[in-house]
Design a protein that fits this description.
This protein is 39% helix and 20% strand. By secondary structure, it is an alpha+beta fold.
Amino acid sequence: MEDKRSIAHMDLDTFFVSCERLIDSRLVGKPVLVGGTSDRGVVAACSYEARRFGVHSAMPMKLAKQLCPEAVVLRGNSGIYTNYSNMVTDIIKESVPLYEKSSVDEFYIDLTGMDRFFGCYKLVSELRDRIIKETGLPISFGLSINKTVSKIATGEAKPNNKIQIERGMEKGFLSPLSVRKIPMVGNKTYQSLCDFGMKRIQNVQQMPVKVMEKVFGKNGVGIWKKANGIDPSPVIAYQERKSISTERSFDQDTTDVVRLKSIITAMAENLIFQLRRGNKLTACVTVKIRYSDFTTYTQQRKVPYSASDHLLLPVVMDLYDKLYNRRLLVRMVGVRFSHLVEGGHQINLFEDRPELIQLYNAMDYLRDKFGDRAVLRASGFGAKTIGRFNPFSGEAPPLLANRRE
């Protein structure tokens, strides 16, 4: 049935930069970098003018400034980006039968069967025109029989353009492209493929699938299938979250014990509130620490299902104490709650007091009304900013432009 499907992939071009240019037209035509402004910051997005100098997203901001010294560097505003993303989402929601929002600026649309009534390419083209007209944001799309080919096609269509891969032409379209274009190929996998003489997708297409499996394992089979335009994965409207997490990188490595504990407490407290707000419980707590030499350690512990501060915070701090080595500088810390299930807090008749449950209800009410940090522990006061979004709203979470503590 795959060759009968019609899947479109839409991607807002240089989304953060485009939003900034709508706010300030003086940025049009200039090289723009959005992300952390310190030397430890990372490029969250960059304009095409900056890319000509070799700058790309996820690059250290310090290196990006060296490559493109005349670039305008902006910290970014996640609230503005989220609002524009929601505007585009609303337009798509009104216009198509089934869509998947895979990130703040990326969408998959299943138009299977629509060609009988309207014409899939015409429908997506008119949808793209409407998005550009109503939001002012440039957007590109690719249309084919599956998600992989459409995503790669969108990349080839950019900037601000469109492309359709006719049925049966998938392998021919993919064959001359670099293997880096395959979505699941990262830097290490790309280097490994090059070592075996597979720099182009055509080289992978010509390789027997058994050889790919023998050399690269299950990952090799996946690469071979995508290289041959095979991807039966469906467009999924919404998936329940299985975990929530937050991390904090420091502008300067630190051994400040008070500051570290304050940030860990604030992150954990905020995540626990998000659990209660989403009517979720967690059964697994994980703490992560990355030291200045980039060595990373994690500790996790299974716990009875809970969404209560007095039960989860001690576990978080105990795991942190086991990980922390006072002799080493800390670069990053993180907290994650996983094994999530639907449900509210089960009151323990012997340990929980009514006053404690009432306290949680009052705290959550104030946070919902006045903001996530309207009420917080004194021990977590050292963390000035913590991500403020509802991870259980059904929308992709906003990508913060490398916000710092």
